[in-house]
Design brief:
Length: 136
């Protein structure tokens, strides 16, 4: 008997000494396959996929890469898994201004009208004109 150790047996019972790179496993076909969150690099290595490369965080959010995942840290006026939800008072839709990095409302909730870049309480008459009510 020889001193050879068999790592794996294939489906026909033959010994195979398959050595896979780090961050991979042997699949059902006795081939090396990269683990979730990793991809083949140079045909031999498994390297982590940077999920932040696609810039998934919106509205100035900061992306943190994780294995097979990412997380976003949102600015104060935004929330949601990709900072897509507006938290600005009375805004239905808002975005980050590209020239000033301020939050700009683009659509208001019912009963509020858009006054420049913010939403203010309004009275409507004839369904066409908004009268902005004073907050003082």
């Amino acid at each position: 008997m020889s001193g050879t150790c068999c790592n794996f047996f294939d489906l026909s019972g033959r010994c195979t000494n398959l050595h896979c790179p780090a961050n991979s496993t042997i699949d059902v076909h006795f081939q090396c396959a990269c683990n979730p969150g990793f991809t083949t690099h140079n045909g031999t290595d498994c390297v982590e996929i940077n999920e932040c490369d696609s810039s998934p965080c919106k509205n100035g959010g900061t992306c943190t890469d994780q294995v097979a995942a990412f997380s976003c840290s949102c600015l104060d006026d935004f929330s949601g898994s990709t900072c897509e939800e507006c938290k600005r008072p009375f805004c239905k839709t808002c975005s980050l201004s590209s020239d000033s990095n301020d939050t700009v409302c683009s659509e208001c909730v019912s009963g509020y009208g858009l006054n420049s870049t913010t939403c203010r309480k309004t009275l409507q008459y004839f369904n066409t004109h908004n009268i902005f009510l004073s907050t003082t």
